[in-house]
Design brief:
Rossmann fold; alpha/beta
Length: 414
């Protein structure tokens, strides 16, 4: 058995954490039972780059119940829960992940699981897909298909598709309604605030919170911050989203102006250099900087390092930068995903739907590998709807269904 984790003795602790997550993921539990009986993934080798958390472990166990062999690496050097990684290694997962990986170790782990010759690839951010297309093309040509968990990763895959270099079909799990409307909005909204609070223990009420980006992630963060009593400012580059933020009751302005006002800044754009040197220099003393985007490029750590006269770690997950003026700025989680670096990421309940989409999409690829084209697909509507139905059932909620007469009425042009 091949694996590389920080400390195998943490496995028992990890098993308890996985058990806790499983108890709060009823949809995936139903799929686990189905997979155990039907074995739809028998003989299938899966390489996955995901945040190695207790929720991910429940997905991995579900795939293995379906007959798959799983190779797993982390999608962020600082997001791995080491006890969970140890528990998975003991269960027979080829897991190569530990918290605090260097950049080189991070990409070495991706290389290792790519060289396992996977039939299916699962990715969170697109680094595995990018590696296969840039450094392991022969392996990529043999892949049946893949999935992608994040907005950032889907953007990268769409770029590959546009350039006509995509070597296998990919299902954009992020685009499922039961993923982005809940995971991105409610999951990231809550877990981002959770990460900030765990790192700082500050009071949100009364603070001016600047949220960069009003996509589904930004919406969720803004709603949660306002719900805790913050005054929320939105910055945007998309006029439609900016207008929506205004209609939702938020202040909207350019970052140059917001930089002078905010107490807490949270980036959620998926783009680079959202907050840079010129913004840092305008900020008040004591500002807190956090990133909720996938990569550590939204808050320019490079610029912050270049203008600071000193820095120090003053709390776990909090780095203080002192500027020439004497102002202090506080960066959380080294500019990486604040909800996973400073907290535990999304709650199990919301990941239940996201990972149910992953499991069912993997089965769909295996069953349809001979007819799928080399392009990016949305999650089939029947999978999306089934996930919602199962989630409602697990909550004890029943809904109406159309009568035959109602169905005919909706289908008639008269």
């Amino acid at each position: 058995m091949s694996y590389k984790v920080k400390d195998l003795s943490l496995a028992d602790k990890g098993k308890v954490q996985i058990e806790w997550a499983r108890k709060h993921m009823p949809v995936l539990d139903i799929i686990h039972e189905e997979f155990s009986k039907e074995k739809p993934l028998k003989g299938i080798r899966i390489s996955a780059v995901l945040h190695v958390t207790k929720e991910t472990a429940v997905l991995v166990e579900t795939l293995m119940a379906g007959g798959a062999e799983v190779w797993l690496a982390a999608s962020n050097p600082l997001s791995t829960q080491d006890d969970v990684a140890a528990a998975l290694a003991v269960e027979g997962v080829h897991v190569f992940a530990w918290r605090g990986e260097t950049q080189e170790e991070y990409f070495d782990a991706i290389k290792t699981i790519a060289e396992a010759q996977p039939h299916i690839v699962i990715d969170d951010g697109g680094d595995l897909h990018a590696y296969l297309h840039s450094s392991a093309e022969e392996i990529a040509r043999k892949v049946f298909g893949g999935t992608e968990e994040t907005t950032t990763g889907v953007h990268r895959l769409k770029a590959m598709e546009k350039q006509k270099i995509l070597k296998y079909p990919v299902i954009a799990v992020n685009n499922a309604l039961t993923k982005f409307m809940f995971d991105n909005r409610y999951g990231t909204g809550q877990s981002t605030i959770d990460g900030i609070l765990r790192a700082t223990n500050i009071l949100i009420a009364g603070k001016i919170v600047v949220v960069a980006g009003y996509g589904w992630v930004g919406r969720g963060i803004a709603l949660r911050a306002r719900g805790m009593g913050a005054r929320v400012i939105i910055t945007e580059v998309d006029p439609i989203r900016a207008l929506e933020a205004v209609m939702d009751g938020f202040e909207v302005m350019k970052m140059d102006k917001a930089a002078e006002l905010g107490d807490i800044f949270i980036t959620a754009t998926g783009n680079i250099d959202v907050i840079t040197k010129r913004h840092f220099e305008k900020m008040k003393d004591g500002v807190i900087l956090a990133n909720a985007g996938h990569f550590d490029v939204e808050v320019s750590v490079r610029d912050l390092e270049s203008i600071a006269v000193s820095k120090r770690e003053i709390r776990n997950c909090v780095t203080e930068y002192v500027l020439p003026s004497g102002k202090r700025l506080y960066l959380l989680g080294k500019g990486r995903l604040v909800n996973l670096v400073c907290a535990e990421g999304h709650s199990s309940e919301v990941m239940d739907m996201s990972f149910a989409n992953q499991a069912l999409s993997v089965r769909y690829i295996v069953e349809n590998k001979d007819v799928l084209e080399k392009r990016v697909y949305d999650v089939p509507r029947e999978i999306d709807s089934r996930v919602a139905e199962l989630k409602l059932r697990s909550m004890g909620i029943e809904i109406d269904s159309l009568t035959e007469e109602q169905r005919r009425y909706l289908e008639s042009w008269k």
